[in-house]
Design a protein that fits this description.
alpha/beta; binds (3,4-dihydroxy-2-nitrophenyl)(phenyl)methanone; binds magnesium ion; single chain
């Protein structure tokens, strides 16, 4: 019977990665996606930029929008201090199911609070509930990697819900490819944001790409 790409990624992790070793899980996915089939994980080149931002911010609270198979979830979680609260939102239940298993294989399942959002527009449903559901006041770091057309609306929603503070860092994948032009326009023209982009490439390709890094200044 047909085996989905996400299932093939999970099988590659279970076959080639060592249980409890996050780096071997990352390596197994990157090897599969560069040698066998492209998939929309942030990948190793942008992943190293993500790692450096996570290490620099050393966040106590993290929100990831768009879990997919859990590749960036594992990268981020493996760098967090034990007291950190990390929420990752995934709209697609099939992706969430694979991500749970990938995160478990890495041995990080108790460090990540996954809330799979099972309905359309899920991040916009969940963002207003985060404070009360998870006891989180503001996020030190937000990684945006979900539907590109939701980057702007969800950023505005996080602002309105008081989830961002002076110093919060937003890191957005794919602002060039596939692109989030309205989001880029908004943050570049807003006095509230100091922005910086890291030159990189679309995962597993040579296509020009940028990770968009934003500090929030009030
Ligand atoms: O939108 C796509 C996409 C579009 C078309 C075909 C496959 C993927 C995509 C491409 C690279 C990404 O890093 C990424 O996060 C996404 N995404 O869906 O969130
Ligand atoms: Mg992406």
């Amino acid at each position: 019977s047909f085996v989905s790409l996400r299932q093939r990624i999970l099988s590659a992790v279970q076959k080639n990665a060592t249980r409890g070793d996050p780096r071997s899980v990352i390596r197994a996915i990157d090897q599969f996606c560069s040698q066998k089939e492209w998939a929309m994980n942030v990948g190793n080149e942008k992943g190293c930029i993500l790692d450096s931002v996570v290490s620099e911010v050393n966040p106590a609270t993290v929100l990831e929008l768009g879990t997919y198979c859990g590749y960036s979830t594992v990268r981020i979680a493996s760098l967090l201090p034990p007291y950190a609260k990390f929420i990752t939102l995934e709209f697609n239940p099939d992706f969430a199911a694979v991500a749970r298993q990938v995160i478990a294989w890495a041995g990080l399942e108790d460090k990540v609070k996954i809330k799979p959002c099972l309905v359309e527009g899920a991040s916009s449903d969940w963002i207003p509930k985060i404070k009360e559901q998870f006891g989180i006041k503001t996020f030190d770091l937000v990684f945006l990697d979900h539907w590109k057309e939701h980057y702007l609306s969800d950023t505005k929603l996080m602002e309105e819900c008081g989830l961002l503070r002076k110093g919060s860092v937003l890191l957005a994948d794919n602002v060039i490819c596939p692109g989030a032009p309205d989001y880029v326009e908004y943050v570049r023209s807003s006095p509230r944001y100091k922005s910086h982009y890291f030159r990189s490439h679309l995962e597993y390709t040579k296509a020009e790409e940028n990770l968009w890094y934003l500090g929030i200044i009030e």
